[in-house]
Amino acid sequence: MPSDDLLEQRLVDRVRALGGPFAVAYSGGADSALVLAAGVRVLGPEQVLAVTAVSESLADGELSAARRLTDELGVTHLVPRTNELTNPGYRANGPDRCYFCKSEVLDTIAPLAHEHGFDLVATGTNADDAADPYRPGIRAGRERGIRTPLLDAGLTKADVRRLSRHWSLPTWNKPATPCLASRVRHGIEVTPHRLARVDRAEAAVRALLAEAGLKVTDLRVRDLGDRARVEVDAALVPRTAALPALAEALAGAGFTGLPHLVEPFRSGRLSSDA
Question: In this structure, is residue 174 part of a structural domain?
């Protein structure tokens, strides 16, 4: 296992090899936050730009959390609006949905970054992402010449968290927070209504678990069309399923009249089952 110092050197070398200032497609997650922090360490805050795409698929509270880190790092943070829902390929919600989403995001970020003097754009794609067969968004980045310093340095997700902790970044243990559309079963149209009710449902279930004294790390509410599936840490499944107010919380969020399941969380599950 490489040491923290070796991981740091590998990433610093890749960032330095970019050859100049760059913008980061910054979601606020651990990966893009580490790329941003590495840019600040190597080039200084004036030579790095954070750009967060804002749309209906961004979960509530994510933008404010992302902005706190850019403020701490002293980096300029732009928040353009993107319009994935105008793309039929995105709305159709096939297995390639992420390709259409990432294309829209990058086609918004790159020209905006250029206007501010940043010709290079980097993402937080890591080595594990590139090995995942369900990542069509990576193809959109490659087609556009987007830089991937974490991937180029060979950093896995575990490496990202280790180095982030070594650098005292608050995102080191932040749970993955993919876009809300990732909660909608493939083949079911992505709509503002579906995205909003998933967002409300996750907030309601998280609050319910907190009231019950249950600390959850990974939480998803999946929209399966004819039912909802609540996914939580495996150890919390029995107690979550037994919460008497769970059905009411889901109904209040918009899943009225639909049955629900409570099962263990598994990342990327909608890519492999229904």
Answer: no
- Give residue 271's pLDDT: 54
96 and 52 inside one domain: yes
Domain that holds residue 201: 180-271
The counts of H helices and E strands in the chain are: 12, 7
179, with CB counted inside 10 A (0-12, 13-18, 19+), is buried
Q: Are strands 120-122 and 220-223 parallel, antiparallel or unpaired?
A: unpaired
pLDDT, residue 204, reads: 98
Query: Does 28 fall in a domain?
Result: yes
Angle ∠(137,66,252) on CA atoms, nearest 5: 85
Residue count (the chain): 274
Tens-digit pLDDT profile for residues 184-233: 999 999 999 999 999 999 999 999 999 999 999 999 999 999 999 999 99
Considering 111, 141, 166, which residue would you say is the last residue of a domain? 166
* pLDDT one-digit tens code per residue, 235-258: 999 999 999 999 999 999 999 999
What type of residue sits at position 145?
Answer: G
The CATH number that applies at residue 264 is: 3.30.300.10
What are the E-state strand segments in 143-206?
A: none
Read off the pTM: 0.93
User: Residue 20: which CATH number?
Assistant: 3.40.50.620
